[in-house]
Amino acid sequence: MANNRINKYIGAMAMATVLIAVPGCTDTWDDHYNNELGTEATQTLWDLIKENPDYSRFADIVRHAKYYKDNTHAVPTYTYENVLSGGQVNTVWVPDNSVLTEQEYLKWKQMCLSENPVDGYNVQQQFLGNHIALWRHNISEPGVDTVKMINGKNLEFDKSKRTLEGLPLGDKYNIPAVNGVMHVLKGIAPFRYNFYESLKFKEPQTKFGKYVVGKDTTYFNVNASIEGLPDENGNPTYVDSVYHTSNRLFDGKFYLPEEGREKWLMPEYGFGARINNEDSVFIMIMPTDAAWDATYEKLKEAHIYAPKYEDKNKGNMNTTAYLDVADVDSLQKMSTEMDMISPLVFNIHKQPKINDQIMWTLDEFKTDRGARAEYLLNTFGDTLRNVGDWDKATLFGDAEPLEMSNGLAYEVSSWNFPSEYYTPDVNVEIEGGSQFYNTESSRYKVGPSSMRYSFSNEAFKAITSIYGEVSNDNFFHFDASGPTSGPKVDIILQGNSPSAYVPYAQVMSGKYDIQIVAVPHWYLDIASATEIEEEFYKLDTIVNEFDITDTMFVRTNEIDTNYVKALASVNKYKIKATLTYNNGGSKDKNQALTATTGIDYNGLRVDTLTLYEDFEFPYSYKNLRYSYPTLYIEGVTSKNDANKNGFVYDLVIDKIILKRKN
Asked: SS3 for 573?
């Protein structure tokens, strides 16, 4: 009775965890059986196997192999003999003694008898589970089916050629049993790890593998477990306990616990890809131990954390709050390792077409490691393009890839991402209100006409080709806060420019040039008019050849640079900047980046103004949830300059750049 109940449970669990319906991959019991025996089913699969001496080695392994629900929990007193003699319908591809050598047989037998549960689990996953599938898979019609084995692997069953993964069945196939069908296989079905299995079970386990597997969480599923009699204290006991293991690197781009998440300073980032999924196709970079250690040393200096940070999330509501870092070394390690692993996985089906025509396949990718693609998109959402002398194909090293059951693994001796990726510039696009900090405080004062302006670089090409383009076809106008006072605004220094190599870059420990991209005030007039106005163009004089007193002026297509210079000369402005950042004190420090009188901008062309060279941030903000530095910018035109020297009180800004100095 207990065995029947467990057998039904195993069938249900196997269906839930590994079975995916594939159209046409199963045949019904009433289909024609094309085999030499031609007998009706009278025996179980186990009877057919154990009674034939040609299958004695396989039978002995079946007899001793335990059924595992996961890599540590076997069903008590339940073996694959019970599986193949029970009520669940299965198909078995049996390797006979001519292909299951003595050495191979003894290896699997020893693993069955091992006290290490991992050995027993590997017998199931790598051998028996690779030769058994749920339901009947008969050869009745020609065709090629993808069969989901009970270990989750997808194997190719070619019914036309009578092969499984290219191995022949010989002349014994479609042998009926009361609980399934049996084929005799002239070979051992090849087992391939998926990426997760390789990192978890392949010996020796790498440091990268230990990191990934260390994120596993195993929990007891009380609803799926079978409860027995209570113990002497009245506590419930279970005749069959069900456990599930999940890995928090797989399901999303970052992990936060359900309870207490507000106290986590830093979310835990992962791949954003289920690398254990047999029905996906990935390309994955797997660093060796040498690559892991060298990369950590290379990246860690950009991940130095302070013992205390201002909580800017609460500070934005005019409150004072601080975040205490209990262990700065642990935070540094966590942040550095997350940055090392998050960019390593690529879904082959998400890569851009080759020449906009050919979709990538694994074979296509092998030829040049993705070099023909315009860019590569990893599962974390990063777009990796060639930059400088760096070629994206170098990510995958020189060695031949390892074939996994769900893709290709490139074991690399060097983590070869460009510095633009792991210590990127911080590009803050001034697009709207989301990047402004402390808007309810006295540090935020702007006039009513402050707004984002759309500006088509292409439509205004006659102007932008001479005086410069604005990024992402927009800029921001900060209107004067009063008749004789400039605007004031705090800007959050977190990257948000979609055109940047890393769009959402954060400030890291190390040096930056702090820059502001100023836009000519007269660009406002063009943007508002939606086209270049007549007065911006030169005029040509045409003389009537019959009457020289009769002349006319005709607009040319050439920009009148003298007119633009004159316009700019009365639309200059001054910018003062102050940086607020963590320097290890009790609260963030304010550091003036310009003189009290600010720096002048001549108003002629889109220009990058350097506010401070080689500014060193002692502490990183990378991956922190609630903390970041801010840049306080002010329009500081004086009344005298406004009245006599052609300055205006407004500011017109494209973006802020913190250019990394490596």
From this structure: strand
Q: Give the integer Cα–Cα distance in Å for 323 and 556.
A: 62
The crossing angle, in degrees rounded to 10, of helices 289-299 and 328-341 is 120
Beta carbons of 626 and 311 less than 8 angstroms apart: yes
326 falls in which pLDDT band (50, 70, 90)? confident
- More confidently predicted of 285 and 256: 285
- Topology at the third CATH level for domain 423-661: Jelly Rolls (2.60.120)
User: With b meaning 16 or more CB within 10 Å and e meaning fewer, what string describes 410-423?
Assistant: bbbeebbbbebbbb
Q: What pLDDT, in 10s, does the model give residues 56-103? A: 999 999 999 999 887 788 888 889 999 999 888 999 999 999 999 999
Identify the sign of the CA torsion 37, 38, 42, 46: positive
Query: Over the stretch 463-514, which tens digit does the pLDDT of each residue have?
Result: 999 999 999 999 999 999 999 999 999 999 999 988 889 999 999 999 999 9
Distance in angstroms (rounded) separating the CA atoms of residues 12 and 444: 62
Angle subtended by helix axes 102-113 and 56-64, to nearest 10: 10
Task: Report the candidate in 190, 182, 141, 97 with the shortest Cα–Cα distance to residue 405.
Answer: 190
Q: Where are the domains of the chain?
A: 2-191, 193-219+249-421, 423-661
Report the DSSP pairing between strands 630-635 and 488-492.
antiparallel
Q: Which of 211, 209, 243 is nearest to 225 (CA)?
A: 243
- Identify the CATH number of the domain defined by range 2-191: 2.30.180.10
pLDDT in tens, 507-564: 999 999 999 999 999 999 999 888 888 889 998 776 566 555 556 667 788 999 999 9
DSSP string, 126-193: HTGGGSEEES-----S--EEEEEBTTS-EEEEETTTTEETTEE-TT---EEETTEEEEEESS-PPP--
pTM equals 0.84
Amino acid in position 242 = V
Q: Which residues pair with 308 in a beta bridge?
A: 324
